[in-house]
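Dear colleague,

Thank you for sharing your sequence with our group. We've completed the structure prediction you requested, and as agreed, I am returning the results in plain text so they can be pasted directly into your records. Please verify that the sequence below matches your submission; if there's any discrepancy, let me know and we will rerun it promptly.
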Amino acid sequence: MSSSAAPVQPPPPRPVRFGILGCADIARKVSRALLMLPPGAATVAAVGSRSEDKARRFVAETGLPGARPHGSYESLLGDTDVEAVYLPLPTSLHVPWATAAAARGKHLLLEKPTALCAADLDAILATCDASGVQFMDTTMWIHNPRTAKMREIVADKDAFGDVRVINSMCGFRASEYFLQNDIRVKPDLDALGVLGDVGWYCIRSILWAVDYELPEAVIAHYHPVKNQAGVLLACGATLYWADGKTATFNCSFLTNLAFDVTLYGTKGTLHVTDLVIPYEEKSGEFSVASKSNFVKPTIGWDPLPTKYVVTTELPQEALMVQEFTRLVQNIRDAGGKPEGKWPAITRKTQVVLDAVKSSIDKGSEPIELAS
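Please find the predicted structure tokens below.
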């Protein structure tokens, strides 16, 4: 009797070995996300800090099994077991350490804002490109399945039409301690202030809504709020496109918590009130009105808006690191190339942010963007 040979099973994927370069609070969230991934996806091989004791405490407090503590950033980058680096350092330190990581062949997951200006970001991206490593920023909501569902609806020309107006508001009421001590209000650490922090999300949400078409010009709003050191605490801007589209955003450390975005199309309206951090970790809501009209004699609306709820097994930060890990494994194990869309949309976000900052610095003069 003949018998067919059992099919050869492919070997399980080798996990991507991460190094965490810096022990910022946001690194705890990303560490937790890495621990939530399915087996074979990723492991934290090392944590680097300016103090080995601090790195050791971080490893213990975040429950990272087997992660080696390093007492310097250089030591972590010299760890040959580290394949990819998550870098949550202050923005002023991104260029030296992000380029150092990429130059050593480490794939780079870089905290936002990615740089103080587009020229600095270009230096980072050029090093990633030369080394053939994957780059991605940490705009987490992009990876939420709710975002994909919203894209599906906005792309429906029959139900939504063309996007014409966008409003975005991201802010939170910072404590007095934050306003005096946080790195995001220090000119030598994160000189972009609120614009680089939650303003980054406003700009990304606007670009996402128009499929990353850069505006023709931006004009910052008058009277931005700054601290005594000149760092932005609240600001906003309006973006203009040649076809008449407009987008307005405000970002603030001085308002009640808000991550609110509204898209107005020629046939539909989409409204989400918790874009950046959903109210609940594993579900996200938004509402859509389509082909709205009045109930005669102007006593109501018809049809009423539709509420959508999108669930997810993994929170958005875990989906982000899962996608980054998949791309790294494709490069390492299958000879693939780095995915270019991630650095491209990061750079567009940075270019618009630069234009807004320039308009603020010039007293709200219009700033034209190169095509």
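Summary note from our side: The CA atoms of residues 158 and 192 lie 40 Å apart.

Kind regards,
the structure core
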